[in-house]
Specification:
Elements lengths: L2 H7 L2 E3 L10 H10 L19 H13 L4 H17 L2 E8 L1 H5 L5 H19 L3 E8 L3 H14 L7 E5 L11 H9 L3 E6 L5 H9 L5 E4 L7 H10 L2 E4 L1 H7 L11 H7 L3 E4 L11 H10 L5 H14 L4 H20 L5 H4 L2
Parallel strand pairs: 1-2, 2-3, 3-4, 4-5, 5-6, 6-7, 7-8
Helix pairs in contact: 1-13, 4-6, 7-8, 14-15
């Protein structure tokens, strides 16, 4: 077995995935047609998936969101998303969804949940892969809308809803003003995470941890600009959900093979990094391919890939007893895979 096969087969957890960003292109076109949503003129659908920065990406993300209207639509896109994760080796999935992007077009929150939760339960029955849901607040909407969002989440809470996130255009909207939202979420027993350090500065990572009290950081790349913060996060064991492919379109780090790529720097510094897919069809990737990319372009060793996989267990919001069991089982499984690796230099260099 070569390193690419190993990277594809290694057991995985997906911790940073947006439902709307995971809609298959063909499904997007079909739902847009069904729900009378105009999409820009194009030849191949891939022509729509071209962007050079986070705001341009979010325009397409919102267009995809607009095409999902009824409970059946939400069931379809959720089930297909989980199917893609499982086919990439995911054993468990925690995913975001953007309620506001659908409410803006008249879709009621209970309608969204009806389809999403049914698909999650159906998929666990069909394929044995459990998943959990993280409604995310768009920081662009401000604190008051965020507090209303939290009220809605708590009113319709179910066992599958385990936390909240903070996402959308980061740079102009720092995390600190959302402290009351995250304090109330913590009081209600919800886990918390926030997108920080993707297009915003290292300070956003610091404030997400110190002010918002998040359990983990989504992206976090600009932490490499602050050596003191890196050292503190290494000491504290902070978790980062990193997404290699999207860095090439939404950050200043466009070359995954560059030795100073932020994710490579983070791993080399000893930070707790997990590998995730973010918005896979929109960047022509999947979770298995993200592991291949860091193996091939960043030259991560089998042991480093193992560490990323096991770190995803620790970073997840699974019960501690499940984490212990999975860590032991995965360690044995991955060690057996490593023993079966072709150790010829060309095999390990992908």
């Amino acid at each position: 077995m070569d390193i690419e096969t190993f990277a594809r087969r290694i057991p995985k957890i997906e911790l940073h995935l947006h439902l709307e960003g995971a809609v298959r292109p063909a499904t997007f076109v079909e739902l847009a047609r069904k729900n009378h949503v105009d999409i820009p003129p194009h030849g191949e659908i891939a022509e729509l998936y071209r962007y050079d920065n986070l705001p341009d990406f979010l325009k397409i993300y919102d267009l995809v969101s607009r095409s999902i209207r009824d409970a059946d639509d939400f069931h379809r896109v959720t089930y297909e998303m989980l199917e893609s994760c499982a086919d990439s080796g995911a054993r468990y999935v925690e995913f975001f969804f953007s309620a506001h992007a659908h409410q803006a077009h008249g879709v009621a929150y209970p309608t969204m949940l009806t389809g999403i939760l049914a698909a999650m339960r159906d998929f666990e029955t069909d394929r044995g892969v459990p998943s959990r849901l993280i409604p995310a607040h768009s920081r662009e909407l401000g604190l008051q809308r965020g507090l209303e969002f939290l009220d809605m989440v708590l009113e319709h809470r179910s066992d599958e809803i385990i936390g909240i996130g903070l996402d959308y255009n980061e740079a102009p909207f720092p995390p600190a003003p959302f402290q009351p939202l995250f304090e109330r979420a913590a009081d209600a027993g919800l886990r918390r995470t926030a997108h920080a350090g993707e297009s915003g500065p290292a300070e956003n990572v610091r404030d997400s941890l110190a002010v918002l009290g998040v359990d983990r950081i989504d992206h976090g790349y600009h932490i490499v600009d602050d050596a003191e913060l890196v050292a503190a996060c290494v000491e504290q064991g902070t978790f980062f959900t990193c997404c290699p492919s999207t860095t090439t379109g939404t950050t200043i780090w466009r070359d995954l093979s560059a030795p100073d790529h932020a994710i490579k720097q983070m791993i080399d510094a000893g930070l707790n990094v997990t590998i995730n897919s973010d918005d896979p069809p929109m960047f022509r990737t999947d979770l298995a391919n993200e592991f291949v990319l860091v193996a091939r372009d960043m030259k991560l060793s089998p042991e480093q890939l193992k560490t990323c996989a096991l770190t995803s267990i620790d970073a997840s919001w699974l019960d501690d007893s499940v984490k212990r069991d999975w860590r032991a089982a995965w360690t044995a499984e991955i060690d057996a895979m490593i023993a079966d690796l072709d150790t010829a230099p060309e095999a390990l260099s992908a």
